Amino acid sequence: MKICRFDDNRLGIVEGPVVRDVSAALECLPRLAYPQPRYDALIANLTQLRERIESVAPYARTRPLADVRLLSPIANPGKIIAAPVNYTKHLEEARAQPQIHHDSQVAEIQRIGLFLKANSSLVGPAEGIALQHPDRRNDHEAEVVVVIGKSGRNIGRAEASDYIAGYCIGLDMTVRGPEERSLRKSIDSYSVLGPWLVTADEIADSANLDFWLTVNDEPRQKANTRDLIIGIPELIEFASSFYTLHPGDVIFTGTPEGVGPVLPGDRIVVELQGVGRMEVAVRSE
Ligand code: MN
Fold first, then answer.
1. Quick one: which of 2, 19, 182, 255 could link to 141 by a disulfide (CB 3.0–4.6 Å)?
2. pLDDT tens digit string along 114-127?
3. What is the pTM of this model?
């Protein structure tokens, strides 16, 4: 199932060129009181929600996909975890280009581990990217994102697939510079998630997915998840050995080679096999 959020927090399922408005299914989610839980309520209740969606979908009105404003499919992730330099060729390009590494050593992911992006940086594709620090290089990083489906810690790689709710496309936008990654990658709108959540049952093999990115139709990045240095099950094992993972936590799995700058007015398109196509506009802040 391809589950999207759109317009003013409506819920939809994507069927080819149309969105079926299944917002009525949201009524099955529990009413939350203060303090709010630190996980995403929609993902935590995904099994019941899917049943409700199936029952309301035949009566739901449809809208052309092209006419809706797509929001982040995960509204309230407890945390946004990200993997740095997780493709060998990107490691090589980062070490070769001073504008990327800024005299800081670019180490292998096995040594530097993971980092966190601020939740306040999260947007959906229709909200676009507002560039800050225009005097510095602002880069696109296309990434496959895995969405955690249930709570767990010390999850072994062999059982990791039981903890996956689904997949999205991510843009880990980055201002280059000498500061820590989590500062430079946590600017408002620098974590784009979309275009929808594809539930795990639709992805037969997440270790063999093609994806690519263009800027104004110019090809920039093209890769396959088989080239990940640390694969998705191992990332879940690694992350959960430090943090308890909760429903709706997202893991940006790392970007391949071909990162490059964007400017106001640019249009980024990312496509991921089995998921779909995400289009994002870049503007100045
Ligand atoms: Mn990245």
1. 255
2. 999 999 999 999 99
3. 0.96
